[in-house]
Amino acid sequence: MRATVRSRWSRTPNWRSEHAAELQKPDGWLALAGLEWLQAGENPFGSAGDNKIHLPASSPPHLGVLHLDGEKVTLNPPAAGFPQGFMVQGQAAQPQELHVDPDHDKNNPRMTIGPLNVYVIKRGGRFALRIKDAKSATLVGFHGLKWYAPNEKYRVTAHWAPYNPQKTYTIATLIGTTYPAQIPGSAEFNLLGKTYRIDPILEDPAVAKLFFVVRDTTSSTTTYPSCRFLYTGFPDHGLDQPGELVLDFNRLENPPCAYTSFATCPLPPPQNRLSIALPVGEQRYHE
User: Fold this and answer.
1) d(CA 284, CA 257)
2) For 227-258, what is each residue's pLDDT tens digit?
3) Would you give the distance in Å from CA 139 to the centre of its chain?
4) Which of 52, 92, 205, 210 is deepest in the core (most CB within 10 A)?
5) Cβ contact 223:147 at 8 Å
6) What is the spatial distance between Cα 66 and Cα 44, in angstroms, rounded to a whole number?
7) Could you tell me the CA-to-CA distances from 279 to 8, 156, 267 in Å, in that order?
8) Can you give the C-alpha Rg of the chain in angstroms?
């Protein structure tokens, strides 16, 4: 049995290649090419120099106008009308108010033309246009990811202690904004003879996934300095009951900010800043 376990851990896990494939999608994090904050009033965007928001040179000179009025963002056409091929959620662009969720972007309408994919986001009460380009230098120049060798010692079973009621923490980000995050409980685990406790974020109650933002002492040498991410399923008895939760630190991955300066990544809360080295998972990308 031990030989079987050793063999399993010596193989390169499939999820590593899946993680790299996700990054390299035409609208993945490596395609991120800009983050432009909107100002009140008119925000014309396109590749021409007279726009407030400048898009890659391959884009149409004038793509559209984003009008910001308080909490409302409206897409309007430029003087010559929307260019041919400009789509909003797969439909030909029309003047419309754009739905924008705070801090989560899954439901925000995507505006596309050619290799370009842009959408409005909201961070800390401010609105910005996120720009993704399937021909971005970061995506075209992708040179592979670096990983520690898998180590079964860093796959641990944690005790899950629910918070009843669930807590809400204020999470800081690398760009200086904050947002409220739902914290359903804590995971307490023993590693190398010491006990630690970390708290996950529940991003979507309808999806059985917990999101840990963690930093350990390898951040000063071999891993991304700000944090790494760890995703898990729900505990064995659900979120509301004590139970067990598997934490496989071999699956620690870099946040989007490790690859591009245009991402807005959360920072770990104090309880997730560990005084131990986790020499597993993904290493620094640019070194």
Assistant:
1) 11
2) 999 999 999 999 999 999 999 999 999 999 99
3) 16
4) 210
5) no
6) 6
7) 19, 14, 20
8) 21
